[in-house]
Amino acid sequence: NKHTFVMIKPDGVERGDVGNIISRFENKGLELQNMKLMHISRDLAKKHYQEHKEKPFFNELIDYITSGPVIVMIWEGENAISAVRFLMGATDPQKAEPGSIRGDMALSITKNIVHGSDSEESAQREINLFFK
Ligand code: GTP
Ligand code: MG
């Protein structure tokens, strides 16, 4: 549990929040291992969010995540997965604590500006999906 996968979603990139988000992870003591800007295909987006394919919000989620370039990153550190999830805050920015990325910087559950892996298995799967 030393590595996790993070994505800055399209509105985070478009609004110019990349530096701010990266700073928060750096300030926490996490170390950036790899990073790239990419425009993800619908096919890759569907693979990334495969666990949600039966959900009512799936199409909206895929439309959003493919709507513009994203930043994908690998971060390393002690308990990196839970550290990143804690810094991100709750999925719904309306419920995320002030001080968290979503609590401070987002308004909508769809446009919640950042993704972080939720388990060791998904971290491994997502790193392979985006960096291999
Ligand atoms: P990710 O880091 O993006 O995976 O978010 P998460 O792990 O906090 O939440 P989850 O994996 O459960 O959901 C994936 C994404 O689907 C979320 O980031 C939301 O954008 C979206 N989502 C989740 N639940 C809902 C919902 O109830 N309604 C809508 N409209 N979108 C949702
Ligand atoms: Mg998730």
UniProtKB/TrEMBL annotation:
It is found in: Cytoplasm. Keywords: ATP-binding, Cytoplasm, Kinase, Magnesium, Metal-binding, Nucleotide metabolism, Nucleotide-binding, Phosphoprotein, Transferase. It comes from the Bacteria. GO terms for biological process: CTP biosynthetic process; GTP biosynthetic process; UTP biosynthetic process. CDD domains: NDPk_I. Residues 1-132 form the Nucleoside diphosphate kinase-like domain. The keyword Kinase applies. One of its GO terms (molecular function) is ATP binding. GO terms for cellular component: cytoplasm. Its cofactor is Mg(2+). It catalyses: a ribonucleoside 5'-diphosphate + ATP = a ribonucleoside 5'-triphosphate + ADP; a 2'-deoxyribonucleoside 5'-diphosphate + ATP = a 2'-deoxyribonucleoside 5'-triphosphate + ADP. ATP binds at residues 9, 57, 85, 91, 102, 112. It holds the Pfam family NDK. The keyword Cell division does not apply. Its EC number is 2.7.4.6. The active site is at 115 (pros-phosphohistidine intermediate). Homotetramer. HAMAP family: NDP_kinase (MF_00451). Belongs to the NDK family. Major role in the synthesis of nucleoside triphosphates other than ATP. The ATP gamma phosphate is transferred to the NDP beta phosphate via a ping-pong mechanism, using a phosphorylated active-site intermediate. This is Nucleoside diphosphate kinase. It comes from Natranaerobius trueperi. The gene is ndk.
